[in-house]
Design brief:
Number of domains: 1
Radius of gyration: 15 Å
Distance between the termini: 9 Å
Structural class: mainly alpha
Protein name: DUF2306 domain-containing protein
Number of strands: 0
Pfam family, one: DUF2306
Organism: Halopseudomonas formosensis
Order of helices and strands: HHHHH
Transmembrane segments: 6-28, 40-58, 64-83, 95-116
InterPro entries: DUF2306_membrane (IPR018750)
Length: 123
Amino acid sequence: MAATLTSAGVIHLTAVLPALLIGAYVLARKKGTPVHRATGWLWVSLMLVVDVSAFFLQRDGYSWIHLLALANLVSICAGIVFIRNRKYVAHKACMVGAYLGTAAAGVGAVAPGRFLNILLFGT
């Protein structure tokens, strides 16, 4: 099977790769600073692109992975609501959960037999 990357796939990968790096940076740095807020908003913007573009990546309709993208969107939106209401622990839980969920999806995406594995390694 020859794997070809669609426009949605290019958009998805172009957003997810920096989102993983920026997300790790945001989580590792001091919280509440102007840099944290600015990079956090950049991460949120990238994650919105990642999650929305996931709905355009489908072989035979929607699958359970699309439910994870939806859950990620809800988590990120809830995290924004929580920080606006000064619920720091809930904000952190939502954002860490969204980041870890995205990282786990990335690991799953390169598993043998998955599209990205085929695209990258031809297996």
